[in-house]
Amino acid sequence: MVAITGEFTRRFVKNKIAVAGLVVVIFLFVVALAAPYLAPYPPDEIHTSSILAPPSRAHLMGTDILGRDVLSRVIYGAGVSLSVGFVAVGISIAIGMLLGALSGYYRGPVDSIIMRFVDVMLCFPSFFLILAVIALIGPSIWNIMIVIGVTSWMGVTRLVRAEFLSIRERDFVQAAVSQGASDARIIFLHILPNSMAPVLVAATLGVAAAVLIESSLSFLGIGVQPPDPSWGNILTEGKDNIEIAWWLSVFPGLAILITVLGYNLLGEGIRDSLDPRLRR
Amino acid sequence: MGRYILKRLVMMIPVILGITVISFAVMKMAPGDPTSILTDLNPNMNEEAVNRIRAHYGLDQPWYVQYLKWLRNMLMLDFGTSFAPDGRPVLDKILERIPITILINLVSMFFILIVAIPIGVLSAVKQGSFFDQTTTIIVFLGFAIPTFWLALLLMILFGVELEWLPISGIRSLDYADLSIPARLLDLAKHLVLPVFVSAFGGLAGMSRYMRSNMLEVVRQDYITTARAKGLDERTVIFRHALRNALLPVITLLGLSVPGLIGGSVIFETIFAIPGMGQLFYQSVMMRDYPTIMGILVIGAFLTLFGNLLADVSYSFADPRIRVSG
Q1: Is residue A279 helix, strand or coil?
Q2: Sequential DSSP letters for B32-79
């Protein structure tokens, strides 16, 4: 494992794209955690003297319809987007690993049932399913985390299943079986740790996807609710004031773009470094 | 051929049942029950009236009875009546909205194909060139740009600043007075931005996919053979490689159906296009449960149909599938 890790680090560091992605991701973490120190104003502070003011020295990204500083709201928005991304991905990975492990380990009817379930879930346009559930249980930051998580585990399930199907035939697993190890022990101690590589890639790319979905939902007014700042709900104001305040539309979108790009690059970079054969 | 299609259809039955089960489960997740929107704020409601309404909708029965009744209605395409003030049958509301959504999706699919395939082929053939590197960067940006943001930027640029294109709706105010060609031009002008926005994500994905397909195919033995025979490069690429690299595109098109349909919510809402996506958004905002459920089920069936169409076309294009599949 140490040898593999060293090999991985060496390849990763050499990969410019991967390093660029990692830098962006770390930068976003710093911004999210240090928001109170980085933001020039509190995100909800209202400057009545400058409503819908264009970017200036005092307000680098301008102000919104209530006179709040857009830069501060974008900075605080980073934490909101990233927490939605991480919790949602955590949920989807947990479901995906469990179902994938059961499917690939037990095969047979268990596998058939779980795989048909995956097929069915993939038939729903995911945005429709998410919106329908949100409409029923109501929009809140916790609800969107859960809903994004429970509608995006299918890819992970397939990946983990494929890993299990191949790893369970390997000698070290057969050795564990012949020693009478329990199913749970084999699944969690022997096979799962060895099938984490593709899950890591899927998780990284999943954060990017979840951030995109959260911002779309917030933009449509059914995600993070104002006054909580989210890149998506600032863009809603941008749309409402599209003819007079371009800065409300440009900067939050740029933040989303950079975040998604960063996680995508990091994910691709991890994939290439884990297995150079997969490189295209 | 017929047998293959029949087999595919039979395999769809459990998936169709699954779709209905999940849709029903989603519907049951609502807090309270769907009648609360009719009863909660109505001062004239007493318990007896509430129970009568619940009985009217069959909500007093066990869930499996409700499911079977609902399933029977679904199979007869009866989605109930909308909770919106118009109170019309859900099916009618959806059917009048579907054509524009399908039109935009078909046009953007066509657009994706004619743009992404040449780009993908060219970057594969000239792997590592300036063109390849530029398109790779653009593709990564394309994956990361939120479509609704792209829509906003394009609206600001072409609608507000340059005033070249209208930014909402599908018809101008003077539409009724226009001649037929002018009407088509008017419609086209309204659809340029929505089609571009809905195609954008697919454009990036498809060109990337096409590029890796081509790179894969070019490595095959029969391409080496074709070159060894002394065929010129043009023939090798377009007659031998491209044909084989195009096959998996059919599958990808099928797989992109749910994304396109789901994406219609976003661009139809932004551009105020009266399609199924906008209806869905409006129903979500109004908590019009019957319409939400109707669109959810129809959306899933459209996806299933798209996949079936892709599989069948694939088997037409590639005889190996018919024999072994």
Answers
A1: coil
A2: S-TTHHHHTT-TT--HHHHHHHHHHTTTTS-HHHHHHHHHHHHHTT--
Chain B nearest-CA distance from A124, in A, is 5
Going by C-alpha positions, the residue among A227, A204, A224 that lies closest to residue A215 is A224
Rounded Cα–Cα distance for residues B139 and A226 (Å): 33
DSSP state, residue A105: H
For chain A, which residues make up each domain, given as ranges? Answer: 2-46+64-278
**Against a cut of 0.90, is the pTM above it?**
no
Q: A-chain residues within 8 Å CB-CB of B212?
A: 280
Contact (Cβ atoms closer than 8 angstroms) between residue A39 and residue A71 = yes
The nearest alpha carbon in chain A to B209 belongs to A280
- Predicted confidence (pLDDT) per residue in B213-249, tens digit: 888 887 888 888 888 888 888 888 888 888 888 888 8
Per-residue b or e along B248-259, where b marks 16 or more CB atoms closer than 10 Å to that residue's CB: bbbebbbebbbb
pLDDT score of B175: 67
The reply to whether B156 touches chain A by the CB within 8 Å rule is yes
Closest to B286 measured CA to CA, from B93, B21, B75, B50: B93
- Tell whether the model's pLDDT for residue A27 goes beyond 90: yes
Least CA distance to B151: which residue of chain A? Answer: A239
pLDDT band at A2 (very low <50, low <70, confident <90, very high): very low
A238 interfaces chain B, CB cutoff of 8 Å? yes
How far is it, in rounded angstroms, from Cα B194 to Cα B198?
A: 6
Instruction: For the domain made up of A2-46+64-278, give the CATH fold.
Output: MetI-like fold (1.10.3720)
Tell which B residues from 13 to 42 touch A, by Cβ distance under 8 Å: 14-15, 18-19, 21-22, 26-27, 29-31
User: What are A59-106's pLDDT values in tens digits?
Assistant: 777 787 777 888 888 899 898 889 999 999 999 999 999 999 999 999
User: How much is the pLDDT for A147?
Assistant: 92
> Which residue is closest to B285 within chain A, CA to CA?
A135
What digits encode the pLDDT tens for the residues B288-318?
A: 888 888 888 888 888 888 888 888 888 777 7
Nearest alpha-carbon partner for B265 in A123, A129, A234: A129
What ipTM does the predicted assembly reach? 0.81
- d(CA A110, CA A102) in angstroms, rounded, equals 7
Which of B281, B295, B303 is closest, CB to CB, to A220? B281
Tokens of A205: 């790319």
Residue A1 has pLDDT above 50, yes or no: no
Render pLDDT for A228-248 as a digit per residue (tens, 0 to 9).
888 988 888 888 887 788 888
Instruction: Kindly list the residues from chain B whose CB atom is less than 8 angstroms away from the CB atom of residue A260.
Output: 143-146
